[in-house]
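Two entries, shown back to back:
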Amino acid sequence: MISPIGPCSFEQLPTTFREAFAAGAIHQKEGRFIPIENDMVFRYIFAVIMFPLALVPAMMIFYLNYYLIVKPFVIIDFIKKVFSESWGVILVTILLIILIVAITIFMGKAGYGFIKDIAVARKEKKNRAQNLHHYGLFMANDCLVARMLPEDGQENCLYFPRKNVEKVEWSYVRTQSEKPRNVLRTLIYYHANDGKKWHYVLKAGSLEGTDLDVYNQVKRWVDDRNTNNSL
């Protein structure tokens, strides 16, 4: 299988690096390695904030099952009452139910993903105590690969052959958030195998060091045409 260039899943990483990450031995390969910092204190604080939100879908599902099993007549009476109203009321009620269901599903998935992320982060912290690294960013002589900690339960991996990377810049980018702002990030400009040109915004995230530290490491890797002589 040919690994896609740029963002990819863990299964799409080249076999040699996928096996090294899985074994916790990626840092033992010849090259530069940036480990995961894994600040569990921040994660636990965020978990306390998210916990009440994660309870909402669980409580809604519980009460729905309760009324379906113990008091089904309450739901039947509600349905009869709604359909006895005008079409406008019926339509609004249906839209509200769809909205509530959609929000419940979204919050449930977000809560499950965050719990999964916490479990992975805790396991990685224990592994690091045994000098095992299952996550991080690794720069070999001919490519850059990364396996970041999952976000929302999704794997977050990268694969950049050196020959496909055209340049790296330290530049301002606009954040995608409720309050967008300009922040400095590492921009990796590269071309895919079909010749199309792309750029990827690399943020330090859970990597050890600041965004500028990560940029300096990656820039050095790109500029250094003979990595083995500079390790």
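entry 2 starts here
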Amino acid sequence: MQPIEGITPDMIWSFGYTMLGMIAIIVCIEKIPDIVWKWKDRKKKAAEGPQANFADEICDKIMDKLEPRFAEIDNKLKADKARLESHEYAITGMHKAQADIYEGFSVLCYAMIAVLNHGIHNGNAAEMEDALSKLHEYLTKRNHDM
């Protein structure tokens, strides 16, 4: 290789500085959009930050005050549900007792009709025996249920 004539050390230094400057400009141009977006995001967060934090704090305070009330209402609802279930159980028992009473009245009425027929027909023993067997069956069945 032959040396290039007319190149001085100052020219080499100037070329190096020029290249370094161009690289710096390219890097800066490449980073400018990132810097601008970060600046806008910081500005946006700064604008929203205190208001958003304030709203969150208010919501948290309200929920802290309401949570015990929600728990109290939930406990009351559970107690009401248990009470209603016990009433349903009691009502079922009452319906069963009512059916037993109707059955008892039916047997008593049958027996009374048999007694009246016995008096009217001068000693119809078959009706009396039938009424007695039904009354006996009802009373013995009734004793087993208790």
